[in-house]
Amino acid sequence: MAAAQLSSCRVATLVGSRRHGPYRAARQQRQHIVAAVHGTPAAADVGDLQRFQQLWTPPAAQLVDVQARGGAPAAAASAYDDHKPRTPPPDLPSLLLDSRIVYLGMPLVPAVTELIIAEMLYLQYKDRTKPMYLYINSTGTTRADGETVGFETEGTAIYDTMCFVKNEVHTVGVGVAIGQSCMLLSAGEKGKRFMLEHATAMLHQPRVPPTGQRQAIEIQIKWREVLAQKQNMLAILSRTTGHSPDKLDKASAAGGGWWPGLALGAGDMQRPLYMQPADALAYGVIDGVVTPEKKIIDDVKSADQWDKEAGLVAR
């Protein structure tokens, strides 16, 4: 009987040691690490302490914050140990703006106009002596299908800003420059207005957005405003291209007709006036055509050059 009880106790002890052995070992290792953290390395194995420091000590002293030190915008890079800092590439508008490039690639709606004007004012604030480059690929105040999406005042607002800033504004036509966008293309610094080889420019009269049902007096007021915007556009184009308002739009000076100041004529803008680069050059909208051999702007800086100028050196 006694031998049987002793045998059962031994079996229970053996089973318990097998069941709780791993937990006991883990608890002992945890005690070693806690003792090391509290400054009692004598109670812990030196190897455990070294392994703990390697696993849990963050290299905060080697953390490099690119954005805080003036590195590439919108980039937060960090370097650990002896690894090279890995910096996400800067966002595209920041790269272009750093090279003083303002890109107009959408129809002229209020949000786009606000951004273009803000970028021009920023570039003037940053440096009043260097030129800025306005790249244009826009259908103006209309969409590609001809539907009006913006007001004619969007183009004149950008034009007034181009005249207001102290910097030279060099314009480059990329893709299409239609209506108000073509006017902005011609409004660049004389001698610094360009188009790419296969770009297209087009001039047309201001268009009225859909208004729905209106009273007769409202239509009359709106039409007067449209005619006033038309005269503003003709005055700007006459100044930038050298053509008289009569050549641009014969109806502007003809008078008479069914509405004061409106009559059919033979002006160039009586119908959409499409121009290829050679035509735009002859018409006075641009001063030159950009070819692969002709360089009009310095190369955009690479991301590594951003970090180098910010004083960030790879470890």
TrEMBL record:
Q: Mind telling me which InterPro entries this protein's record contains?
A: ClpP (IPR001907), ClpP/crotonase-like_dom_sf (IPR029045), ClpP/TepA (IPR023562)
List residues traversing the bilayer: none
Annotated signal sequence is none
| Gene Ontology molecular function, alphabetical | ATP-dependent peptidase activity; ATPase binding; serine-type endopeptidase activity
Quick one: a GO cellular component term?
plastid
Example of a GO biological process term: protein quality control for misfolded or incompletely synthesized proteins
Q: Which family does it belong to?
A: Belongs to the peptidase S14 family.
Listed name of the protein: ATP-dependent Clp protease proteolytic subunit
Native source organism of the sequence: Chlorella variabilis
